[in-house]
Amino acid sequence: MKQFNAILEEYGIIGYESISKPVLAALVAEEPILLVGEQGTGKTLLAERLALALDISDKNENKEFNAYDASKSLFEDVIGFPDPVKMQTGVLDYLPSPITIWNKKFILIDEISRANPAMQNKWLEIIRSRRLMGKSIPDLKYVFSAMNPLHYAGTNPLDSALADRFFLIVQVPSSFSRSDLSKIINCQDNNSLAGSIELMYILRDIKKISENIEPIFSNRINSFILDFAHKVEKLGLLFSPRRCAMLKRALDIFTAIDIYFGEFSEQNLLNNFAVCANCGWNYFVTDEEPRADVLTEAYNFATAKIKGSTKDTSKQFENYKKSNAAGNNNPSSQTPPQSTRAQYDDTSDIKAIGEIIGAGLELFTIGFYEMVIKGNSGWKSKMKINQ
User: Fold this and answer.
1) CA 186 → CA 18, 45, 84, 111, 182, distances in Å?
2) What pLDDT score was predicted for residue 331?
3) Of all helices (H) and strands (E), which one includes residue 171?
4) Pairing of strands 168-171, 33-36
5) Within 10 A of 159 (CB to CB), how many other CB atoms are there?
6) In the prediction, which pLDDT does 339 show?
């Protein structure tokens, strides 16, 4: 069975293995996803090639995919000009063009953080409701958006209401292995590639599985979300009901992905909790204080029943940090490593991976904010591993 990352590589998307599961989940859910990353890391290319793999046309005569530059696109570019003939009959409709949105199946809203707040909010209705000026966009399935991190000059934080519309907010890798970089620089553009039948089957089958998750797993997912949201609120922040519902769907799909590819384990379930919670944390793209300490504390609280009693994992965590530092120097793009498949009752590994992920989240979030965004090169973790 071909892995999703292998399909990405066939279409020239290389080095995205660490975020391939969130990207696949967004495609299965047909929900909006926000890609946050440095310039030149392939965010736009990812959307273009996924449209190609999904057999969605980008040709002018039947342009079903379009990349809009949110920093430059005028509202008239997206909606079109009113049709004067129909207006005479009392009907408000718009003249189509190759870039109007009405016939689109897949769109990329690029540079959304470089649009001013007024222009950002014009995308809000499209991103979540697939509507514009109250009129439905009937064929629009896939909405991708991309932005540079907020420390870039010329970027604007997203409005909280806009950020909360995204199903997942994913930090794109900016550091690539020597092997991946070699593939990238030697990759040949191949615009003759047809749609991927395999990808179509993968999306169909994972969606079916996600809609029929066994109660034993669904109950754990529900418990995690309720405990996580409750703890976040108790710590003084809001994890909206809409965000809770999106987190539930994301976790169902992540679990279905693991089942489909034969990779389900208790460890991966725990790992999915960490990744989905992090990808649902919109404070990194708004002007609000990131408060990653709240994310970490809420995650640890919500997974306490799964992890059980804690144990000393400082040695494993130190080895884990070293291995990640050697392979990827950008903390924001790292996710806890996938564990090998294990028996469901392997509780010692569950406890260990729980401690690793819980401590590792501080490195990915607070560390990134302090060292990269604030420029605090002397930052050191204050988190203690439970004995």
Assistant:
1) 21, 16, 51, 27, 6
2) 37
3) strand 168-171
4) parallel
5) 16
6) 33
pLDDT of residue 379: 57
> How many Å apart are CA 26 and CA 253, to the nearest integer?
9
Domain segments of the chain as ranges: 4-199, 213-373
According to CATH, what is the number of the domain 4-199? 3.40.50.300
| 263 Cβ contact partners less than 8 Å away, ≥ 6 residues apart | 257, 338, 341
Please name which of 240, 270, 284, 383 lies closest in space to residue 336, comparing C-alpha atoms: 270
Beta bridge partners of 161: none
Instruction: Give every residue of the chain whose pLDDT is below 70, as ranges.
Output: 190-192, 305-387
- What does the DSSP assignment read for 205-269? HHHHHHTT--HHHHHHHHHHHHHHHHHHHHTT----HHHHHHHHHHHHHHHHHHHHTT---HHHH
Helix or strand holding residue 317 (H, E): helix 314-327
- CA angle centred on 125, ends 123 and 129, rounded to 5°: 130
Kindly report the backbone phi and psi dihedral angles of residue 98, in degrees, each rounded to the nearest multiple of 5, phi listed first: -60, -20
| CA triple 55-58-61, angle to 5 deg | 110
* Strands 142-147, 65-69: pairing kind: unpaired
Phi, psi torsion values for 62, nearest 5 degrees:
-150, 65
Structure tokens at 80: 């079109």
